[in-house]
Structure formats: structure tokens, C-alpha cells
Design brief:
single chain, 16-stranded antiparallel sheet, 16 strands
Length: 387
């Protein structure tokens, strides 16, 4: 029988995987970013401190836990996960966080198939860690074209199939308790095919193979990685796709995330999320982050609205109602545009919604209903807050 320790580890890891795996190319880049490592490691470390006798200093063998889960998004329908999660201590330093490795497979009722492996290997003392990931996917999706005008045209909805492979690594330096920095490197392959309306992509590339380098810096003072009540989370990420091997011309990508958390009245927390992404040079359309999904602009189909630049802001009220039950209410807006000089505030997309939360041990079950422009809406079910 699976012990309490293994069940706990499985729940922690499943929760983060669910929140990020039902994605397309632009999202899968972030599936195993620092949120994964912080969420899993923080939860496991709390458990170890509470049950120190279950982890002996000389136990550095790999401990493997099987896992399975289910979620729902409008893009994938019902999704099913199966995989294994492994944790081990790198050496005999009990002060260092547990290193981890995870492998999962995913299939959905709408034809999505994904496999992924990711992990984090901590150095002695936990002063740095090597983060790595490899993933492959095939998705059946809808595409409306590039830009706001195409997204608003319902007759543009075109079915297509996308496939991709991503491999990446980052070496993260823990500068202080709240600050870390990581250089990164990766390889990406992508192909889009079988469009219903090929004229929507006649001027755009349908594939990409290439390498990228870059770095990110994170400042994090949140009091919890699962359900923060105060603090800030700031992240700046810069990626460069140089002219190398398969790439004919370089392009660049800059992403900024700024999250703020404040305590309100009894049981209430206000959470603010601001996100910006800009793409420069001959970057292909499929790496541009669109609105929608289960984290930002919930209610919009992920990929309906996309352009070179994305700017999104949302504020969410998180209210604890009774014991393990809670509710959220949010409002926000987003804009996509080819350049900042061409940004049109009249094309800002509204977003609002309501959700239910249930505390399940170290994580939260969520059920959200998100609404957008002219009646667009969706139901989302999974784990953990949107941000």
C-alpha cells in the first residue's frame, strides 16, 4: 500500500502538472519553470520538517511514486494523466532541498497527446540547482489568424494540427532567500499542418527548428507558493534565438511577470497579476503567447487572439468561506498588438469570472467559470490558483 509520504508527494506534483500540461507550444515552454520547482519543493520541505524521522540523513536513494490525475479545459476537453515522480537527496546534506525528476504522459478526449520529463538537481547546501525538461506533443486546435481583427471574425475558425518537441536546461543560482538568477539554453521543433483555411497562414511560416539561449531573474517574497496571502513575485525573462544551424535570422523574446498579494478583511486576499511579452525580429507566430487558457484571460479559447505583443492584467479576490471552502472573483483585460505604436485601447479584451476553491491537503482544487468578449466563456477544472 502507498504510504502517506508517497501519497503526499504524488498530490503535490500532480497539482502543478495539471495546472500546466494541457497546453500548446507557447505554453509548454513554461510547463516546468520555477513555479514547478518552488511548489513541489516547498510542500515537500514542509512535510519533511513535520515528519523528520521518515527521512534519514543517509537516505539518498531515488524514491519513486506512481501518479494519475484528471482535469478539464475547453481546448483539450477531459484530460488524463499518468506518470511517475521521483525524489532523492543529492549527497548527504539534509539542509539541501530534495532533488526531483518527473515523467508523465497525457491524453485528452479532443485528441491531445503529450509526454514530458522534467527535474531539478540541487547542489550541496541548496545554493544552486540544475533544472531540465524535455517534452513532446501533438494537438488538434482551432486557429483564427493573426491579430485582433481576425480573432473577432468567427467565420475564420480553422482546424489545424500542431506537433512539437522541446528540450531545455537552466542552471539556477540562489542568490538570496528571495532572489535567484538562471542562464538557460534549449532546442525547439514545431510544425503546424492540415489547416481548414490555409489563406490565414499563407504569409507565415508553418514550422521551426532551432536553438535558444537566455536568462531569467526572479524576486519572490510570497509567504506561500501554493496559496500566498502577502508578498510579491517579479520575473524578467529574456530569450535569444541566434542565427545558428537551422535558423536563417535571429529573433528575440522578452517576458515580464509581476504579481502582488495583499490581505483584505477576514479570510480575504487580493491578488494582482500583470504580464507582458514582446517578440522582436523574424519570430514565428506560434511562439507568441496568446490570451486565454487556465491562468490568464480565463474564458477565452487559448490561441484565438494572438500577435507579436501581449499585455494582460487581472485582479482576483480570494475569499475563504467556511473551513476548507472558498471562492474567487476576478476581473481583468488583455490586448494583443503588432507593436506598441500600433496598440489600440479600443481593441482591449475584457475578462471576468467566478470560481470555487476546496483545500485538499497542501493544494487547492479549483472550478472556474470565465467570461470574455461577446459571450465567449468556458469552464475550467484543475488544481491551484491561476497565479
Amino acid at each position: 500500500m502507498m504510504g502517506g509520504r508517497n501519497i503526499f508527494r504524488a498530490i503535490c506534483i500532480i497539482s502543478v502538472l495539471i495546472s500546466g500540461i494541457s497546453v500548446s507550444y507557447a505554453q509548454i515552454r513554461e510547463t516546468f519553470d520555477s513555479i514547478y520547482y518552488k511548489s513541489v519543493s516547498a510542500s515537500v520541505e514542509r512535510y519533511i520538517r513535520k515528519h523528520p524521522n521518515r527521512f534519514k540523513p543517509d537516505q539518498n536513494k531515488l524514491k519513486v511514486t506512481p501518479m494519475a490525475a484528471i482535469n478539464y479545459t475547453q481546448e483539450d476537453g477531459i484530460g488524463f494523466f499518468i506518470g511517475i515522480a521521483g525524489q532523492y537527496r543529492n549527497g548527504f546534506d539534509t539542509l539541501a532541498p530534495l532533488s526531483n525528476i518527473t515523467a508523465i504522459g497525457y491524453a485528452s478526449t479532443k485528441g491531445s497527446l503529450k509526454v514530458a520529463v522534467a527535474g531539478a538537481n540541487y547542489t550541496s547546501g541548496g545554493r544552486s540547482r540544475l533544472e531540465y525538461r524535455a517534452s513532446s506533443f501533438i494537438d488538434d486546435r482551432y486557429f483564427w489568424g493573426i491579430g485582433y481583427e481576425n480573432g473577432t471574425n468567427s467565420t475564420n475558425r480553422s482546424f489545424f494540427t500542431e506537433t512539437g518537441v522541446g528540450i531545455g536546461a537552466a542552471y539556477r543560482f540562489i542568490i538570496s532567500r528571495n532572489l535567484n538568477l538562471a542562464p538557460l539554453i534549449g532546442f525547439d521543433y514545431y510544425k503546424a499542418s492540415s489547416f481548414t483555411y490555409e489563406h490565414l497562414v499563407k504569409d507565415y511560416p508553418l514550422g521551426y527548428t532551432g536553438f535558444h539561449i537566455g536568462a531569467d531573474i526572479v524576486f519572490d517574497t510570497k509567504d506561500s507558493q501554493i496559496s500566498p496571502t502577502k508578498g510579491v513575485y517579479l520575473k524578467l525573462k529574456q530569450k535569444i534565438h541566434p542565427r545558428l544551424f537551422f535558423q536563417t535570422s535571429p529573433f528575440y523574446q522578452t517576458a515580464i511577470t509581476a504579481d502582488f498579494f495583499f490581505k483584505g478583511w477576514k479570510g480575504a486576499v487580493f491578488a494582482v497579476d500583470i504580464f507582458s511579452e514582446s517578440n522582436y525580429g523574424d519570430s514565428p507566430w506560434f511562439i507568441w503567447t496568446p490570451v486565454g487558457g487556465d491562468t490568464r484571460m480565463r474564458g477565452y479559447y487559448y490561441g484565438r487572439y494572438r500577435d507579436r505583443n501581449t499585455l494582460i492584467a487581472q485582479i482576483e479576490l480570494r475569499q475563504k468561506i467556511y473551513k476548507y471552502h472558498g471562492a474567487v472573483l476576478w476581473g481583468g483585460a488583455g490586448n494583443i498588438f503588432p507593436s506598441y505604436r500600433e496598440m489600440d485601447l479600443k481593441q482591449t479584451l475584457p475578462n471576468y469570472g467566478i470560481g470555487y476553491r476546496f483545500e485538499l491537503g497542501p493544494l487547492l482544487f479549483k472550478l472556474d467559470a470565465g467570461f470574455g468578449r461577446k459571450g465567449e466563456w468556458s469552464i475550467l477544472a484543475g488544481f491551484n490558483h491561476a497565479f
